[in-house]
Amino acid sequence: MAYVALSEAEKTFILHGVEEDFRCDGRSRRDYRPMELETGLVSNASGSARLRLANTDILVGVKTEIDVPNPLTPEFGKLEFFVDCSANATPEFEGRGGSDLAQELILSLQKAYESSLAFDYRTLCLIPGQQCWKLYIDILILECGGNLHDAVSLAAKAALYNTKLPRVTATLLDAGVTDLIISDNPYDCTRVGIDAVPLLVTVCKIGDYCLVDPSAEEEVCSTVSMVVAVSMRNNTGRCGGYKMLRPFITKFLSTAYLSGTHMTGGGSMHRETMLNCIQLGLSIGEQLNSLLVKMLKAEEQRVGPKRPKTVGFLK
Amino acid sequence: MAGRMELLSEQGLRLDGRRPHELRHIKCKLGVFEQPDGSAYMEQGNTKVLAAVYGPHQAKSKKAEGNDLVINCQYSQATFSTAERKNRPRGDRKSLEFKMYLQQALSAAIKSELYPRSQIDVYVEVLQADGANYAVSLNAATLALIDAGICLNEFVVACTASLSKSNIPLTDISHIEEVSGGPKLTIAALPTAEKIAFMEMSERFHIDHLETVIETAMAGCREIRDILERAVKEHLIHMGSAADWARVG
Amino acid sequence: METDTTDQSKDDILICLPGERLCRVEDNVVLGEGTYEQGGYIYASKSGIVSIVESEEKYQMVSVNKPGFHLTIPATGDVVTARVLVTTPKFAKCAIFCVRNVLLESSYRGLLRKEDVRETEKDRVDIYKSFKPGDIILARVINQMEQSFMLSTAESELGVVIAYASDARKNRIPMVPIGWGEMQCPQTTIKEPRKVAKVLPESTIKSEP
Fold it and tell me: Cα A287 to chain center, whole Å?
């Protein structure tokens, strides 16, 4: 992580700001910094997204490959995360310098995506036991401005939403051998369902208070933080009888579930504080998710027929 | 050379519809990021590169040798940058080679006598690779150095060139032309002084053609230099008017 | 002269790029920052605005400035501000963090040898009686050795400017100079030996060679 040097006075200033619920940049403890999102900007990848959360810049590319499913889970496809900390972010990442941070991020993403309720691995299956999709989610950290976990998970989800898998049809050949025909038409593709895909929310404890989306300076002040993985789940299946009401009910019945959490940083916290942190993380995660879905929908509109050229880094 | 694909159609157009002397579309921007001392983004056709410069700062003890400036480069390629997924972004032979070549070409341009015992870090990240990766990386690095305010003799720009079967030189090779087996010549030049800082060539062709291919690449360098110059000027005017032409120093 | 921007109004700004030829080398033209000479011409080595400053002796200084930007490396002759890190019988190791009036982003190593502490009675200097780790000193760069910059405080305006008493670390009250060789803690009235700088307005130090 980029090293930020703060004096005692600066730390105290940040601490007092957090106590007053008025942080250095004017946010309250529950606010996120401004975000910019763009999808589909890497043409060599099946799906891609670039997220800029204040000074944190993440580029994600999703690559696909056909693989053999794990014999223990024949109906599941595969997902693999890879994080690369670019030396562009800080000279400390040169060579293997960023590998510890990368490993930490990979692990927390893996844990969050582990449950098949959080990510539906069945949609990636082509022929149970024989062929499945393997998605490589390659994350590139271009600039660190704090709160990497949240930014990385948001960008990964956006890239998954943007991912287009070519439609595959299987034909049975002689002797039970199946042959896969991958569609050549770039518009004939399937998408990955992202409704339940988890987001990570870092709840940072500074002084006696918990806050979300810490900046790099705030991260220095905090002794301990919780990374909460929040997965949304739709419970509409249960209310089959109220079809008329479904649109309204959906809103209330999609609830936030916890799909993994872990603590980072050297400090310790009280059990009750920890539960409060997780509660805060869940409620923020829910808001964040609906915000992201809204952003992605807007982005999709933009990518329609009247699509302007991708801006990328040229803005 | 038999068996390789013809790079020029009968109408004299290349695989992507360009004429032999035409460059791909170039877009670039200086000052993309805030944390590095200088940064730049460069797009040449479908090849997209980000470069960042840190320094000059005190040389790390293990790298310092005597009184010279240490130019520390790193070339890495995002795992999703190529059509086939790469397993690791750096550390393979190709990126080590490019890193060395970057160091060579940049040390010809940087006025190193002004920065004794210092170190300049140049980090290049290829986001999308579609041929001429080294050339675009070097051009992006030059822009980032200018953004960082590091003194240069002049712009150092690189361009690639090839030769079609019918012995017509081609400028700015794309990935598809690279893999279809023609010769590939990369030149890094100081175009105003007409000096060549670095040259690399692969595949064979007759020595008689070398002169014309080099001239083609040099012409490409000059053209790229003009484009970069325009971008730097625009950036300066933009930055300068924002800072109200305040002079520091 | 090919360029003439003596009066710099906002609409009349000359922008140059690295490698651009600015003017011919003439007797009354001096090379400033961001320029270099080659083959009888002056070229720009940075992108920025060309400025030509005319001094009293009919000299013109051509230099290139980048708006809102400044980059500094200590050079021989510069007055720097440094923090003493380690003292040994022969030298004191320092970290240079400020050159002239420009704060550096990362510090440079500096070395202050026993012989360069003061002008007179050089052989009777004791490093331990001149500096303590943690002191902030003003020094002049006299040479550039491998790995570090050689510093000197052999001027009455150079030496320790801020120091804390060695026992009163908690209170952090800076000591007050009471002579060229001693400082005193205002709280405990303990006196400690230091090579004290006679702090003058910056302009007086700068004008020296």
Answer: 14
Total domains, chain C: 2
Residues of chain C in Cβ contact (below 8 Å) with chain B: 8, 10, 13, 15, 17-20, 33-34, 36, 43, 45-49, 51, 65-71, 73, 105-109, 144, 146-147
Q: If you write DSSP's letter for every residue of C88-108 in order, what string do you get?
A: -SSEEEEEEEEETTEEEEEEE
Do C and A touch, counting CB pairs below 8 Å (3 needed)? no
> Which positions ≥6 away from C56 have C-beta within 8 Å?
none
Question: Does some domain include residue C205?
Answer: no
> Distance of alpha carbon A40 from its chain centroid, rounded?
16
* Complex ipTM: 0.89
Contact present, C3 and C23 (Cβ < 8 Å): yes
CA-to-CA dists, residue C3 to A159, C54, C56, angstroms: 52, 14, 20
* Residue C155 and residue C89 share a domain: yes
Interface residue A146 vs chain B (CB under 8 A): no
> B153 vs chain C: nearest CA distance in angstroms?
5
Q: What chain C residue is nearest to B152 in terms of C-alpha separation?
A: C45
Considering the domain architecture, whether residues C53 and C104 belong to the same structural domain is answered as: no
Euclidean distance between CA atoms A214 and A32, whole angstroms: 9
Q: Do the bridges between strand C136-144 and strand C149-152 make them parallel or antiparallel, or are there none, so unpaired?
A: antiparallel
Nearest to B120, CA basis, from B59, B209, B165: B59
The sign of the dihedral angle between the CA atoms of B42, B44, B49, B55 is negative
Looking at the structure, do residues C52 and C85 belong to the same domain, yes or no?
no
This prediction has a pTM of 0.82
Each residue of C82-141: pLDDT tens digit?
999 989 988 899 999 888 887 877 788 889 988 888 888 888 888 888 898 889 999 999
Instruction: Output the DSSP codes for B50-80.
Output: EEEEEEEEEPPTTT--TTPPEEEEEEEE-TT
Contact C74, C141 (CB under 8 A): yes
In a domain, C3, yes or no: no
> What is the architecture of the domain spanning B26-242?
2-Layer Sandwich (3.30)
A62 to chain B, closest Cα gap in Å: 7
- Per-residue pLDDT tens listing for chain B (249 residues): 444 567 788 888 888 889 999 999 999 999 899 889 899 999 999 999 999 999 888 777 665 566 788 899 999 999 999 988 998 888 889 999 999 999 999 999 998 888 877 889 999 999 999 989 999 999 999 999 999 989 999 999 999 999 888 888 999 999 988 888 778 999 999 998 889 999 998 877 788 888 999 999 999 999 999 999 999 988 888 877 766 665 433
When CB atoms are compared, the residue of A43, A65, A138 closest to B128 is: A43
